[in-house]
Amino acid sequence: MSPLQSRRLTRVAVLSVHTSPLAQPGTGDAGGMNVYVLQSALQMAKRGVEVEIFTRATSSADEPVVEAAPGVLVRNVVAGPFEGLDKHDLPTQLCAFAAGVLREEARNQPGHYDLIHSHYWLSGQVGWLARDRWGVPLVHTAHTLAAVKNASLAEGDTPEPAAREIGERQVVEEADRLIANTAEEAKQLIETYGAPLDKIDVVSPGADLARYRPGDRAAARAAFGIDPLESVVTFVGRIQPLKAPDVLLRAAAEILTRRPDAPLRVLVVGGPSGTGLARPDSLIELAADLGIADRVTFLPPQPPDRLVEVYRASDVVAVPSYSESFGLVAIEAQACGTPVIAADVGGLGTAVRNGETGILVQGHRADDWASALGSMLADRSELARMGERAHHHADNFSWEHTAEGLLASYRKALVDYDIRDSRAEAPAQRRPRGMWKIRRGVRA
Ligand code: UDP
Q: Which domain of life is it from (predicted)?
C-alpha cells in the first residue's frame, strides 16, 4: 500500500485459540481471558467496530458461527478433536487452526479484516501468519507469560515448557503492538522478553460496572443459605495450584485454631483446572484434613448474575494467587463494595490499593494470611470504609475504558503499519531476524 494512505478500522479479527469467549469462566481453561475477549468485543461493536472472534471448536454441537451480539461474531474453527485435547497439545493444532482462519478470510473480499488482535501466545502464532498473508497489523496481548509464571510456581505446579517461551518471544518480536495489562507487565515484556518500549501500550482490563455494584447483602446471603451473622471470606476462580485457594483454607484453619468460636465461613466458587488441585475433591479433602470441613462451602462456577450475589454476600474476597497478570475477580469484588485480600504479585498490586481498598500480603504463609485476614475482619467499621473506597477504586476499571485504550493502540498500529508499508518495511516484507537460544529466560 504505497503511497501513504490511511487505513480504516471497521472490522477486527480477534484470535482466541484455546478458549471460547462463550464458555462459562471459572473452570478448566476458561477464566479472565474469556471475559476480556468477550467484553472488549462488545465494547468495540458499540463503537462501530465489528469483531469476529476465532476460537477452536470444542464440541461437535458448536455452530460454525454464533452471533454473540450485534457486531460480534464467534467463529468456531474445527482444528483437532473437539473434546479431550489437552492444552499442552494445542500447539499441534495451530496449523489446522490457521488454515481455518485463512480460509474464512478468503471467502470474503480482500481487506475484510483491518487488524488482528491475538490473545495468548498460541493465538499470537496464528496471528503472525495471518498478518503476513493479509497485510494488516497484528496487536497481541499475552495475558500470561511463561517466564514470569515459572519464576513463581506454586508447589506441585508444572513449569511451562521452553517451547512456550520460544513461541512467546517470536510473537513479541513479530507483533506490531503489544498490550500489557499493567506497567509491571510492560516491564516484564521489556526486561525478560526484549520488547521495545515504544511497541507497548498499557491498557487496564475492566469489570462490567453496570452489573458488579453494591447491593443487598442480606438478600445475597439468603440466596446462598449463608448465616447472616457469619464472617464470609470468598475465593472465586479456577481451582488450580497457581490460584492457591488452599492458602485461604490454611489461613482459615489457623484463625480457627487461634479462636475456635470465630464465626468464620469460607466460600469457594469455581471448578477444577490444570494440575495438582485439579481433582474436584482435593480441596474438600484438604478442608477435612484441616478440620474445617463444616466451615467451608463449595459452589460450582457461577454465571455473572449469580456471581454478583456471591461478591455482595462476602465480607472479604481473597485472591491468594502465586502469579496474576491482573486479577479480574479483585476488581469485580471491589466494584460490589467488597474489600480484597490478595497476594502482592503481578497485577494485583494495581487492582488493589494496599491498606485502602484491601490488603496485599507478602508470600503465602498461612500464619501471615491468618493475621492479615483476622485483622481485617476484627475491625468492622474499617472494613466498611475499605468497601466504600474499593467501590470507588473499581470505577477506574471499566470495559469502556479498556475499549478506548485498545482502540488507541489499534489506531497507532494502523498508522505505523502504513508508514512502514509505504517504505517497504512492513513486517511481511522483512527478513526474520532468526532464532535465539533460550537460556533460563535470557535471550542469547
Ligand atoms: N468467573 C465466573 N464464574 C465463576 C468464577 C469466575 O464468571 O464461578 C469469572 C470472573 O467473573 C472473572 C474471571 O472468571 O471475570 C476470572 O478472571 P481472573 O482474572 O480473576 O482470573 P483468571 O481466570 O484470568 O486467571
A: Bacteria
Q: Are 180 and 235 members of one domain?
A: no
Burial class (CB in 10 A: 0-12, 13-18, 19+), 68: middle
What total of structural domains would you count in the chain? Answer: 2
Predicted local confidence at residue 431, as pLDDT: 57
Identify the CA nearest to 167 among candidates 131, 139, 137, 142.
142
Tens of pLDDT, residue by residue over 168-197, are 999 999 999 999 999 999 999 999 999 999
Q: List the beta bridge partners of residue 52.
A: 13, 73
Ligand 1 pocket list (CB less than 6 A):
25-26, 31-33, 35, 236-238, 269-270, 301-302, 304, 307, 326-329, 332
State whether 69 and 174 are in the same domain: yes
By three-state DSSP, how is residue 354 classified? Answer: strand
3-state secondary structure of 293: helix
26 and 38 in a single domain? The answer is yes
Domain that holds residue 308: 217-395
Look at residue 428 and tell me if it is in a domain.
no
How far is residue 383's CA from residue 13's CA, in Å, rounded to a whole number?
A: 44
| Residue nearest to ligand 1 atom 7, measured at CA | 25
Per the annotation, where are the binding residues for 1D-myo-inositol 3-phosphate? Answer: 18, 29-34, 87, 120, 144, 164
For residues 225 and 275, state if they share a domain. yes
Q: Facing residues of 118 across strands?
A: 15, 140
Q: pLDDT digits over 209-237, tens only? A: 999 999 999 999 999 999 999 999 999 99
Query: What are the pLDDT digits (tens) for 48-75?
Result: 999 999 999 999 999 999 999 999 999 9
Q: What number is the average pLDDT over the span 261-277? A: 84
Which CATH number does the domain housing residue 252 bear? Answer: 3.40.50.2000
Which set of grid coordinates corresponds to residue 261? 468460636
Per the omega criterion (within 30 degrees of 0), is the bond before 161 cis? no
Give the orientation angle of helix 304-313 with respect to helix 328-335, to 10 degrees. Answer: 70
- Pocket probe for ligand 1: among 144, 145, 236, the residue whose CB has the most ligand atoms within 8 Å is 236
Is residue 280 domain-shared with residue 301, that is, in the same domain?
Answer: yes
Domain identity same for 391 and 406: no
Q: Say if residue 179 is in the same domain as residue 276.
A: no
